[in-house]
Amino acid sequence: MSLVESTPAGVPEVANNNEDPPSIKPDKKYTVQTSDGQTFEILGKVAILSEAIQHAVAVCGEDHPIPLSAINGRTFKHVLKLFNMWADDSKPFDRAPHGGRGMGPNPDGPEFEYLRTISVNDELFDLCRAGGYLLSQRLTDTTVFYVHNFLKDKSIEEMCSFFGEEYDANYKPAPDAE
After folding, report:
1. Average pLDDT value for residue range 142-163
2. Segment 18-28, tens digit of pLDDT
3. Domains of the chain: which residue ranges?
4. How far apart are CA 73 and CA 46, in angstroms?
5. Using H for helix, E for strand and C for coil, what is the string for the chain?
6. Other Cβ atoms within 10 Å of 135 Cβ, number
7. 91 closest CA partner among 80, 79, 106
8. What is the pLDDT of residue 119?
9. Which is higher by pLDDT, 87 or 77?
10. N or C, which end of the chain is more exposed by having fewer CB within 10 Å?
11. How far is 4 from 26, CA to CA, in rounded Å?
12. What is the topology classification, in CATH, of domain 4-162?
């Protein structure tokens, strides 16, 4: 019985049968290929942090490169740095963000220390998007919470600068149409 079936749209998906898909082995090395052709060797304990990579291993097999068509090598290097920090971490977050709803990253923790070293805003945006593409809730939460923390006390001019937008002091929002 085949582990991989094809949907009508031609998108491979894991077959829903009694066979278990290949599980990620923590000490096995997996090859990941980014959109710009760079390849990375990652350990299974790192690959487990991405649901998309887990699914790709089930679809492509353990010994084939895992394509990451929406992430470039520069961004994946940042992803790997964060994933390696978390690979042996048994508790995802140690504090409650967002007014106590759920758990989130510690602004004084090593993740934020690393994110503070990224000086190019486009790299932060790409890292936020990578969390969604890789289906990694922890990566998404950490990067979005970092950007939120960074911007929370900034003026409108500073926020416009951060996002690469031109500040228009004469801009007035249109009155609500009723």
Report:
1. 87
2. 455 457 888 89
3. 4-162
4. 16
5. CCCEEECCCCCEEECCCCCCCCCCCCCCEEEEEECCCCEEEEEHHHHCCCHHHHHHHHHHCCCCCEEECCCCHHHHHHHHHHHHHHCCCCCCCCECCHHHCCCECCCCCHHHHHHCCCCCHHHHHHHHHHHHHCCCHHHHHHHHHHHHHHHCCCCHHHHHHHCCCCCCCCCCCCCCCC
6. 15
7. 106
8. 83
9. 77
10. C
11. 23
12. Potassium Channel Kv1.1; Chain A (3.30.710)
Task: Confirm if 53 and 66 have CB atoms less than 8 A apart.
Answer: yes
Q: Is residue 85 scored above 80 in pLDDT?
A: yes
What mean pLDDT is predicted for residues 165-174? Answer: 80
Dist CA 126 CA 51 (whole Å): 18
CA-to-CA separations, 38 to 42, 105, 135, in angstroms, rounded: 13, 29, 21
Distance CA 67, CA 165 (A): 33
Tokens standing for 12? 């491979």
Q: In which residue are the tokens 């140690």 written?
A: 94
Return the amino acid letter for 21.
Answer: P
- Integer-rounded Cα radius of gyration of the chain: 20
**What are the tokens at 71?**
């992430």
Q: Are 88 and 58 in contact (CB under 8 A)?
A: no
Q: pTM, whole model, 2 decimals?
A: 0.74
